[in-house]
Specification:
By secondary structure, the chain is mainly α. The chain is built from 4 helices and no strands. About 65% of the residues lie in helices and about 0% in strands.
Length: about 90
Protein backbone atom coordinates (compact mmCIF):
# COMPACT_ATOMS: atom_id res chain seq x y z
CA UNK A 1 0.00 0.00 0.00
CA UNK A 2 1.38 3.41 -1.01
CA UNK A 3 0.51 6.53 0.95
CA UNK A 4 0.71 9.86 -0.85
CA UNK A 5 0.55 13.10 1.04
CA UNK A 6 2.49 15.60 3.11
CA UNK A 7 3.84 13.00 5.53
CA UNK A 8 6.82 12.03 3.38
CA UNK A 9 10.05 11.80 5.28
CA UNK A 10 11.94 14.12 2.90
CA UNK A 11 9.28 16.82 2.78
CA UNK A 12 9.84 19.95 4.90
CA UNK A 13 7.04 22.56 4.66
CA UNK A 14 9.33 25.23 6.18
CA UNK A 15 12.21 24.75 3.72
CA UNK A 16 11.09 27.64 1.49
CA UNK A 17 11.00 30.07 4.43
CA UNK A 18 14.36 28.78 5.67
CA UNK A 19 15.92 29.39 2.25
CA UNK A 20 14.57 32.98 2.17
CA UNK A 21 16.11 33.70 5.57
CA UNK A 22 19.45 32.24 4.49
CA UNK A 23 19.46 34.48 1.38
CA UNK A 24 18.65 37.56 3.45
CA UNK A 25 21.46 36.86 5.90
CA UNK A 26 23.98 36.27 3.12
CA UNK A 27 23.08 39.58 1.38
CA UNK A 28 23.92 41.73 4.41
CA UNK A 29 27.17 43.72 4.21
CA UNK A 30 30.16 42.00 5.73
CA UNK A 31 31.87 45.07 7.22
CA UNK A 32 30.71 47.57 9.81
CA UNK A 33 30.95 51.28 9.14
CA UNK A 34 31.12 54.12 11.60
CA UNK A 35 30.30 57.73 10.80
CA UNK A 36 31.01 60.48 13.30
CA UNK A 37 29.18 63.74 12.80
CA UNK A 38 30.91 67.10 12.92
CA UNK A 39 29.11 67.92 16.15
CA UNK A 40 30.40 64.73 17.78
CA UNK A 41 33.93 65.56 16.65
CA UNK A 42 33.62 68.98 18.27
CA UNK A 43 32.39 67.36 21.47
CA UNK A 44 35.40 65.05 21.48
CA UNK A 45 37.66 68.09 21.27
CA UNK A 46 35.97 69.40 24.42
CA UNK A 47 38.63 67.65 26.49
CA UNK A 48 41.17 70.17 25.22
CA UNK A 49 38.93 73.03 26.27
CA UNK A 50 38.33 71.39 29.65
CA UNK A 51 42.05 71.25 30.41
CA UNK A 52 42.42 74.93 29.44
CA UNK A 53 39.51 75.83 31.74
CA UNK A 54 41.06 73.91 34.62
CA UNK A 55 44.30 75.87 34.19
CA UNK A 56 42.41 79.19 34.12
CA UNK A 57 40.33 78.29 37.19
CA UNK A 58 43.42 77.28 39.14
CA UNK A 59 45.04 80.63 38.23
CA UNK A 60 41.98 82.53 39.46
CA UNK A 61 41.83 80.47 42.67
CA UNK A 62 45.46 81.22 43.37
CA UNK A 63 44.94 84.95 42.70
CA UNK A 64 41.94 85.01 45.07
CA UNK A 65 43.92 83.23 47.79
CA UNK A 66 46.83 85.66 47.37
CA UNK A 67 44.50 88.67 47.38
CA UNK A 68 45.68 89.85 43.96
CA UNK A 69 42.48 89.12 42.02
CA UNK A 70 40.90 92.33 40.69
CA UNK A 71 37.31 92.59 39.49
CA UNK A 72 36.35 95.28 36.96
CA UNK A 73 33.00 96.37 38.37
CA UNK A 74 32.01 98.42 35.30
CA UNK A 75 32.63 95.50 32.96
CA UNK A 76 30.69 93.18 35.29
CA UNK A 77 27.75 95.58 35.39
CA UNK A 78 27.82 96.01 31.60
CA UNK A 79 27.71 92.23 31.05
CA UNK A 80 24.91 91.81 33.60
CA UNK A 81 22.81 94.46 31.87
CA UNK A 82 23.37 92.94 28.43
CA UNK A 83 22.46 89.49 29.77
CA UNK A 84 19.24 90.61 31.45
CA UNK A 85 18.14 92.89 28.61
CA UNK A 86 18.20 89.97 26.11
CA UNK A 87 15.64 87.88 28.02
Amino acid sequence: MKIHGTNHSNFNPYQKQFNKQAETVSKQPQSDKLQISDQAKKMQQGDKVQSQREVRVSEIKQAVENGTYQVDSKETARKMLSFWSKG
